[in-house]
Amino acid sequence: MIECPDEMTSRRRGVRLVLCDIELEVLLPQLAAVQVQGVEAGGELIRITARTREGLAVACPGRGRISGWEHSRYVRHVADEAVGGRPVVIDLSVRRLYCQNPACSKSTFAEQVAGLTVRYQRRTPALQRVVNAVAVALAGKAGARLLLALHQVVSWATLLHGLMAVPRPRPPVPKVLGVDDFALRRGYRYATILIDAVSHARVDVLPDRTAATLAAWLRAHPGVEIVCRDGSASYAQAVTDALPGAVQVTDRWHLWRGLGTAAEKTVAAHARCWRTAAMETAVGSRNERTLARHAAVHELLDGGVGLCETARRLGLGLNTVTRYARVADPDQLIRPPQYRRCLVDPFRDHLRQRRAAGPVATTTLLAEIRAMGYTGSANLLVRYLNQGRAEQPLADPSVRRLTYWIMTESGRLSDEHRALRDKLTAVCPEMTALAGHVAAFARLITEPGGDLQSWNDAVQADDLPALHSFIHGLNKDRQAVAASLHLPYSNGATEGVNNKIKLLKRQTYGRAGFALLRQRILLNGPARPPATKIL
Fold first, then answer.
1. In whole angstroms, how far apart are CA 90 and each of 33, 81, 83, 125?
2. What is the pLDDT of residues 318-328, one digit of tens each?
3. I need a labelling partner for 21 at 20 to 30 A (CA). Which of 204, 284, 313, 532 fits?
4. Which residues contact 412 (CB under 8 A, 6 or more apart)?
5. What is the arrangement of strands in the sheet containing 202-206, beginning at the earlier edge strand?
């Protein structure tokens, strides 16, 4: 029992409850240092009346002199965490004491109760921790709505002011530093995030991504030995200027992405080799319009017309005109018909066998496949047969799809896709060489002890201009690339933090200045495990 029934007295506007001292200390341990005079639960509020104990000496916050000389008393109204779904207000009578140090600037001062009051604050430390946690997680208006469910009324402005006052963690300067940029305003303004690449703790946020700013930070925080970054030349220059002896490690994911871009260009350049399906060039078809647009674009460009004027005359987008201008061979723009999967696909082999044996009515085929489980309409079957999808082989994949198959490990592909990939990459020596170089580079970045120079020499021996350009970029940052192949560090954790920053920006869209965003990024660090676990 929490309440003592024999001491309950009725009141006009509520019920006054007198709690047993032992049970009160268990329920509200912050009140153990004061004398509770009464508890009133009326309506939607629990009001506790208490006073500090007499005769206790308290240190002055000004000069630290201990004093027990009472000047007067006054009542503080302190909000506490909700109990039983109702907010709690503590009416605490505290003493104002004289300071006995003549040199102190304060003649009197108010006493504070540890765990219950803080100077200039109307919330208990426990409630303030809850408010701060909500502010860190949700910031303004979203945090205010959540606090309403916790029976606390706090405005969004108060939450933001409290959020800016939360002390930021100050981790030591890491030996392995992760560096990456993120957009404050995409395409216009960027900032830099610094984290500990081992513990994933946030270290700092810089207001831009220039080499000078990062170099100044590195000089002011000595102790960094390894820097994990992407292929940014400005970051590389900053580390070289500030820490000439530091090891730079480029990110393996960016290496793989760069190889994928080069592989996609190679696949597109040899599309005429591996495309075997009949091209749809009927009048009015998509490919016929593509060929006509390509010819019109190059005719104007050959006549000295600029890209913008060409786009205006043809009524096309500038990006479309640029894409056509970069392709000299129009056949590279031709795409075979791409059909989506439909309900007839599982019965494709049966339809092919029946039609190969001789003429057969569509109604007969419909009845047969319905008996086998077909649930689609007759019109869908008619369109399927008229398009020739039952007789022709499956349409060739797109450039991006074939590149994805080449960049994917064989064990992760289905038997059909793996067989089609092997068939298409064997049609010309360049495609075969591309598949082999991609597989070799995958082993190079996943298995320690690989020889980057041998892979470079093998690629240079083949006629693959896109991969040669990729190698040229690697050679510019050769030491960082070599370090990424032999050291266990990467920039993956920094990329993960960058992804979380996007959520923080969306939560305070339109109101998050750099100072507020920096505060939220540094406070939203890795989650700590709970101190206790309830089974």
1. 13, 10, 12, 13
2. 999 999 998 88
3. 532
4. none
5. 202-206, 189-196, 176-185, 226-229, 247-250
3-state helix, strand, coil in the chain (%, to 5): 50, 15, 35
Please state, as a whole number, how many other Cβ atoms lie within 10 Å of the Cβ of residue 52. Answer: 19
The backbone torsions φ and ψ at residue 335, rounded to the nearest 5 degrees and listed phi first, read -120, 130
Contact 487, 169 (CB under 8 A): no
**Could you tell me how far CA 454 lies from the centroid of its own chain?**
37
Give the pair of three-digit tokens for residue 341: 């999967």
What is the pLDDT averaged over residues 388-413? 82
- What are the chain's domains? 5-121 (no CATH), 176-251+490-523 (3.30.420.10), 278-386 (no CATH), 399-486 (no CATH)
Of 530, 522, 531, nearest in space to 196 by CA: 522
**Please, which residues bridge with residue 192 across strands?**
181, 206
Count CB neighbours of 481 within 10 A: 20
HEC letters along 53-109: CCCCCEECCCCCCEECCEEEEEEEEEEEEEECCEEEEEEEEEEEEECCCCCCCCCEE
Mention every residue, 6+ apart, whose C-beta is less than 8 A from residue 40.
Answer: 11, 14, 15, 16, 17, 46, 47, 48, 49
Distances (CA, A) of 374 to 202, 349, 367, 496: 56, 14, 9, 45
pLDDT digits (tens, 9 = 90+) for 191-231: 999 999 999 999 999 999 999 999 999 999 999 999 999 88
Quickly tell me which residue has 């795409």 as its tokens: 335
Nearest alpha carbon to residue 337 among 280, 403, 401, 268: 280
